[in-house]
Design a protein that fits this description.
Layout: H1 2-39, H2 46-51, E1 62-69, E2 75-82, E3 85-96, E4 102-111, E5 119-120, E6 129-137, E7 165-166, E8 176-177, H3 182-189, E9 198-201, H4 220-262
Helix pairs in contact: 1-4
């Protein structure tokens, strides 16, 4: 009786956990569908973007902005990969035309120099007023930091368009950083930088940058994997219960009956 009760409770618990994992996967599939739907909407104009009460409600939607690149404040986020190759995400503040607002734009990815990590590749930054199209995204994601470096100084001015850039080698004074906090960067540069959102530039590779941005990691495979494990454990409990509580006693009784007939 105790084994039966334990088996029933175990099966009920594991099936419930498996169903919960499937429900979490369904929620994230719905979230992915929302993200895909946002990306398919027509781009917001600059006026529409500035009029948004909560830009975070319009995440992943295209927007088209006009303004000026603040090239001297370009930042290179280290240890970012694209197609499995290590490199940097290149971020440059963008001063919006006709306003006093600045938006941080994640412009693209450039491969690391494996001989000298402080030597940055050739990045072209168009001068003057330009138009940029991208997706409204959260501020740049943070990687795990084992230690906290001193507050970084403003990034040095970039070299002429199309030339190789050489960043200072001193940690903490370089435009190469592990992470970027927009609140701290706003205070550091004393600029009217927006800290609620950033822009992820879209389009084909250009200006020495690639833009095959990785999709948001929603963890669908993880939930399906956990669900499979829970359902597998439930099936294992059922099989063991049937084997030891039904099949094994039945085989013993048949063997005993056969032995009694021989006697």
């Amino acid at each position: 009786m105790f084994l039966t009760l334990a088996a029933v409770l175990t099966v009920a618990a594991t099936v419930s956990l498996g169903r919960w994992q499937l429900s979490r996967a369904a929620q994230k599939e719905a979230l992915q569908a929302q993200i895909d739907a946002q990306k398919q909407k027509p781009p917001l104009s600059q006026a529409e973007f500035l009029a948004l009460e909560k830009p975070s409600d319009s995440l992943h939607r295209p927007v088209r902005l006009r303004g000026l690149w603040l090239t001297p404040q370009t930042v290179y986020l280290d240890n970012r990969q694209m197609h499995g190759v290590p490199g940097f995400y290149v971020l440059t503040p963008f001063a919006l035309e006709g306003t006093e607002q600045t938006v941080m734009i994640q412009r693209g990815w450039v491969q690391r120099n494996f001989v000298d990590r402080t030597k940055l590749g050739a990045i072209e930054t168009p001068p003057g007023i330009v138009e940029v199209t991208g997706l409204i995204e959260p501020p740049p994601s943070h990687l795990l930091e084992l230690g906290k470096a001193e507050a970084a100084a403003p990034a040095p001015a970039a070299a002429a368009s199309g030339s190789a850039l050489q960043a200072p080698a001193v940690e903490g004074s370089s435009s190469i950083r592990q992470n970027l906090d927009l609140e701290a960067f706003r205070a550091e540069t004393n600029s009217p930088l927006r800290t609620d959102v950033s822009l992820q530039q879209s389009g084909p590779a250009s200006e020495g940058l690639q833009r095959d941005w990785p999709a948001p990691a929603l963890g669908l495979e993880k939930h399906y994997g956990y669900a499979f494990q829970w359902f597998g454990l439930s099936a294992l409990v059922v099989i063991l219960y049937v084997w030891f509580q039904c099949i094994t006693p039945f085989r013993r009784s048949r063997r005993r009956a056969r032995d009694e007939r021989r006697i």
